């Protein structure tokens, strides 16, 4: 089928590339010319394992193109994905200006062919109807006539352009670092629309994925598809992220109690995770969640509740527990080193999770800010964020080094921020000898306390 994805961030580019990979004819549109040029040369502007490979093969098969020309993309696609950013505003609500611009742009370029407009970006609940209105605004701006929708005296109405489209909410559940896998092996596909024709086209689009044709395990039963109304589909996205974030804050709250009573949260997590009603995923205590989704989606959901007179106390508590975890790490450093002023702290990992280059709301950024405020010197080593590559202003005062050995040299403590698998392979006995004081605060309980203490380190975990 002919597809257009608008916005080539983590979601738009992955969605476009995967749909081309499974056989569709895709044009990806982005308003950033540098990004488009980069993608035309087969390179991905984001780090996502496996993405550039499927981009290159889909481009070679002539099924994936990139352009800044929104009109060309819209003319091409019978399915149009809106996947532009919806970043949080200071008050927690979503900044939907980009969705507005794109929805109106679509209205201005509709060509009479029936199209399905898909909300892939996480948009505030109740946006489906709002996007439809914006598209119609775009149409009427183009025809410069007041658009008669429904009633109106058609006998005298001037030649009207009757747009043929429906809006579908199709929330994404991609985790950064495993976005390709998650797209081709979804637990479920959620479709929100009150129009069966639109639902049927989406089922046709996703058929190869539903039938597990590109799955890691092709023998699995077909993917569950939930077709529901627009508002419920939008709420499913927020509720899923809010639950996962709350689950993490729950185990962090338990970790904080474990520390006081001498229990080991990694054991507690294992023990409760064996209950099938709880499950063992998203129960890793540590410095908590960051990234471009959980913080944004919880803030938006809390804000939506407030807009309708509901105080989301549980969700607010999940957010405040999460924020507190970050200060906890500083307290642990102060307990070990007493005064941090003048001390050198080395951060192992900067990104908000492994296998991504995304620093958005990474806990490391807050830790850096607090350490600098306290007068400490901060060094950092990250497998993806190299000294040359980083232009992030938050890292301006950080001495980015190119190896764990350089990081450890003359440092007073290490802080493991991100559980990159290569951090298991480091020669810790050697590192201990390079440090002023061999202390490591393990913010992800990722390293073996026994192995680290045998290496000469004072290993400090979270909740254990
Ligand atoms: C986005 C949404 O922010 C998030 O709500 C949703 O959950 C997933 O999709 P992401 O893909 O990370 O997340 O967005 P981002 O990385 O900000 O990329 C958006 C892209 O859209 C950028 O490449 C930007 O250049 C492009 N864009 C933005 C347009 O093409 N047109 C616009 O008008 C605005
Ligand atoms: C999340 C959702 O998982 C995904 O479904 C949604 O589409 C987008 O948001 P993402 O933010 O990319 O994906 O990463 P995820 O793996 O969910 O981790 C989110 C944060 O939680 C990370 O900072 C991670 O370090 C943290 N985390 C995760 C924990 O602290 N403990 C855990 O047990 C799991």
From TrEMBL:
Pathway: Nucleotide-sugar biosynthesis; UDP-alpha-D-glucuronate biosynthesis; UDP-alpha-D-glucuronate from UDP-alpha-D-glucose: step 1/1. SMART domains: UDPG_MGDP_dh_C (SM00984). The keyword Oxidoreductase applies. The active site is at residue 293. Keywords: NAD, Oxidoreductase. Residues 346-449 form the UDP-glucose/GDP-mannose dehydrogenase C-terminal domain. NAD(+) binds at residues 30, 35, 86, 122, 176, 296, 360. Its EC number is 1.1.1.22. One of its GO terms (molecular function) is UDP-glucose 6-dehydrogenase activity. The keyword Ion transport does not apply. Pfam families: UDPG_MGDP_dh (PF00984), UDPG_MGDP_dh_C (PF03720), UDPG_MGDP_dh_N (PF03721). It catalyses: UDP-alpha-D-glucose + 2 NAD(+) + H2O = UDP-alpha-D-glucuronate + 2 NADH + 3 H(+). Substrate binds at residues 173-176, 237, 282-286, 290, 353. Belongs to the UDP-glucose/GDP-mannose dehydrogenase family. Catalyzes the conversion of UDP-glucose into UDP-glucuronate, one of the precursors of teichuronic acid. This is UDP-glucose 6-dehydrogenase.
């Amino acid at each position: 089928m002919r597809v257009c994805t608008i916005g080539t961030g983590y979601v738009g580019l992955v969605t476009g590339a995967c749909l081309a990979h499974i056989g569709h004819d895709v044009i990806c549109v982005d308003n950033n010319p540098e990004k488009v040029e980069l993608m035309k040369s087969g390179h991905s502007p984001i780090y996502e394992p496996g993405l550039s490979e499927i981009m290159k093969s889909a481009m070679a098969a002539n099924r994936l193109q990139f352009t800044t020309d929104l009109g060309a993309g819209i003319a091409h696609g019978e399915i149009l994905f809106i996947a532009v950013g919806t970043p949080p505003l200071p008050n927690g609500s979503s900044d939907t200006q980009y969705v507005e611009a794109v929805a109106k742009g679509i209205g201005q370029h509709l060509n009479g062919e029936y199209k399905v407009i898909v909300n892939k970006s996480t948009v505030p609940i109740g946006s489906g109807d709002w996007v439809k209105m914006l598209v119609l605004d775009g149409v009427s701006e183009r025809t410069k006539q007041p658009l008669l929708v429904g009633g109106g005296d058609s006998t005298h109405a001037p030649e009207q352009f009757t747009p043929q489209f429906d809006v579908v909410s199709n929330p994404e559940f991609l985790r950064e670092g495993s976005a390709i896998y998650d797209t081709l092996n979804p637990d479920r596909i959620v479709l929100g629309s009150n129009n069966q024709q639109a639902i049927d086209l989406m089922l046709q689009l996703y058929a190869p994925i539903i039938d597990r044709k590109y799955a890691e395990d092709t023998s699995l039963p077909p993917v569950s598809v939930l077709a529901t109304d627009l508002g419920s589909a939008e709420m499913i996205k927020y509720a899923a992220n809010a639950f996962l974030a709350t689950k993490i804050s729950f185990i962090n709250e338990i970790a904080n109690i474990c520390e006081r009573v001498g229990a080991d949260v990694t054991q507690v997590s294992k023990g409760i995770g064996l209950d099938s009603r709880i499950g063992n995923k998203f129960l890793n205590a540590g410095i908590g969640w960051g990234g471009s989704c959980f913080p944004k989606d919880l803030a938006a959901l809390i804000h939506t509740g407030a807009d309708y007179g509901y105080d989301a106390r549980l969700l607010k508590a999940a957010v405040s527990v999460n924020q507190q975890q970050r200060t906890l790490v500083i307290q642990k450093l102060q307990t070990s080193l007493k005064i941090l002023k003048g001390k050198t702290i080395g951060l192992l990992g900067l990104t908000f999770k492994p296998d991504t280059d995304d620093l958005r709301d990474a806990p490391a950024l807050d830790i850096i800010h607090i350490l600098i405020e306290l007068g400490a010197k901060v060094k950092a080593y990250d497998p993806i964020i190299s000294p040359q590559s980083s232009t992030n202003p938050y890292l301006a005062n950080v001495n980015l080094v190119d190896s764990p050995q350089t990081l450890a040299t003359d440092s007073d403590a290490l802080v493991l921020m991100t559980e990159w698998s290569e951090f298991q392979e480091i020669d810790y006995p050697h590192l201990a000898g390079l440090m002023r004081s061999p202390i490591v605060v393990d913010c992800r309980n990722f390293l073996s306390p026994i192995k680290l203490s045998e290496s000469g380190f004072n290993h400090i975990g979270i909740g254990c």
